[in-house]
Design a protein that fits this description.
The protein is an alpha+beta fold. The protein has two domains: about 40 residues; about 250 residues, Sandwich (Jelly Rolls). Helix 1 runs antiparallel to helix 4. The chain starts with a helix and ends with a helix. It comes from Akkermansia glycaniphila. GO terms for molecular function: carbohydrate binding. This is Concanavalin a-like lectin/glucanase domain.
């Protein structure tokens, strides 16, 4: 019995977690798409109390026209989602607009996390999921994550790949995507892209040169610029963070909603609790 307890103690110590980089204090805006939208927009279901909700909304449009294709259920974690229009052979797009630049910026670093599902069809054969960010200087950083690479939108840049899997075309299941951008320092502006909790690619400085000031707009599906990057995409559990998310954060968000990061005890915390219980059992056994 004592030998088994010692083995258990060693296992718990070896598997303890170092901790997450972010928690709910870093969550600036969050949509779970359960709240019915207005005719063209929906505001976050959760927002940092210190921030203003003024003009922070989601505008969904297909081929340039406003549309409300929201589903209040069926999302990745029991919430709702915003869907591609099955009747439309063209792209699907929605964007978050205006007012974020004070809180989502290059000084502190930032991250965007979400669950996506590629809805590529025979009439519209663009692979992957595209993203477009517009910054305070009106420069844009547009790119498209495919199954094995990142296609850049209208400018030069390079990415270092890990060999991890990317976006599945016609995916039946939700996939997590985390776009994590470093703040000030040697790697300022460098983006790490995580797919399904695994590091997929890291950007080069050429990509970073497009990113100046705060984020004023963010789109999933393209359209803000570089239209050839347009894709048909379902999306749910969209969150904006005021810090660079870590690999451990990205792994957690693969299977959990954004409003659970830092709320569910991390492995190290649980391990310490079990460790204390085992030590108490050993003490009682010896006495």
């Amino acid at each position: 019995m004592r030998s088994m307890m010692k083995t258990g103690l060693l296992f718990l110590v070896a598997t303890g977690s170092a901790g997450y980089a972010a928690d709910q204090d870093n969550l600036q805006y969050y949509w779970d798409f359960t709240t019915p939208p207005t005719a063209t927009t929906t505001n976050p279901v959760r927002i940092d109390p210190a921030k203003s909700v003024n003009q922070i909304g989601i505008n969904r449009f297909v081929d340039g026209t406003n549309s409300t294709v929201y589903h209040q259920t069926g999302g990745a974690f029991g919430g709702g989602y915003i869907a591609a229009n099955a009747a439309n052979a063209g792209y699907n797009n929605f964007h978050v607009y205006y007012g974020m630049e004070s809180y989502i910026n290059m000084t502190t670093g930032f991250s965007i996390s979400m669950q996506v599902r590629n809805d590529k069809n025979a009439s519209f054969n663009t692979s992957g999921v595209s993203f477009s960010m517009v910054f305070g200087s009106n420069d844009d950083a547009t790119f498209r994550i495919t199954n094995n690479a990142i296609a850049l939108g209208g400018y030069t840049g390079s990415w270092t790949y890990t060999g991890a899997a990317g976006i599945v075309d016609n995916g039946a299941s939700w996939q997590s995507v985390v776009l994590s951008v470093n703040g000030s320092g040697a790697n300022a502006g460098i983006m790490s892209v995580y797919v399904d909790g695994n590091l997929f690619a890291t950007s080069s400085a050429a990509f970073t040169s497009r990113m100046n000031g705060g984020v004023t707009k963010f789109a999933i599906g393209g359209k803000l610029a570089d239209n050839y990057q347009e894709t048909r995409t379902d999306a749910s559990d969209l969150a904006f963070w005021n810090t660079a998310l870590s690999a451990q954060d990205a792994a957690f968000l693969k299977d959990h909603a954004a409003d659970q990061l830092g709320v569910i005890p991390e492995p190290a915390t649980a391990s310490l609790g079990l460790l204390g219980s085992l030590m108490l059992m050993l003490r009682r056994r010896r006495s």
